[in-house]
Amino acid sequence: MADIVPDDVDEARLDAAVQVFKLLANPTRLRILQLLGTGKFNVNTIGARLGLEQPVVSHQLIALKLHGLVTSEVAGKARYYSLVDPDVLTIIRAAGGLL
Fold first, then answer.
1. Would 45 be classed as within a structural domain?
2. What is the pLDDT along the chain (99 residues), one digit of tens a residue?
3. I want to staple 69 with a disulfide (CB 3.0 to 4.6 A). Which of 5, 48, 58, 64 is the partner?
């Protein structure tokens, strides 16, 4: 049987993709990403919209930000979160279509 993985696969990029898919395996993170696909929100608004406690939202946003899926900006006293690249929603939608 032929080798499925080409010889020129960039292992670092492959590992990064694995980390993103692990990150997306969390339903709370998926819900946050889907909400952020509709606009910029602060932690309290995300929590209120999704029925989550503020510490839960903060914890998940930290993970998403560390992996480069969300970014934040300060406006006044609030920090607003948004998607770095909306194409992450395409991955989520495609995965949902497999079910």
1. yes
2. 455 666 667 888 888 888 889 999 999 999 999 999 999 999 999 999 999 999 999 999 999 999 999 999 999 999 999 999 999 999 888 887 764
3. 64
Residue 25: both structure tokens together: 């395996």
What CA–CA distance (Å, rounded) separates 64 from 55? 14
**CB 82, CB 35: distance < 8 Å:** no
Backbone phi, then psi, for 41, in 5-degree steps? -140, 150
CATH number of the domain enclosing 38: 1.10.10.10
Find, among 28, 40, 46, the residue nearest to 70 by Cα.
Answer: 40
Report the Cα 55 to chain-centroid distance in Å: 17
64 within domain boundaries:
yes
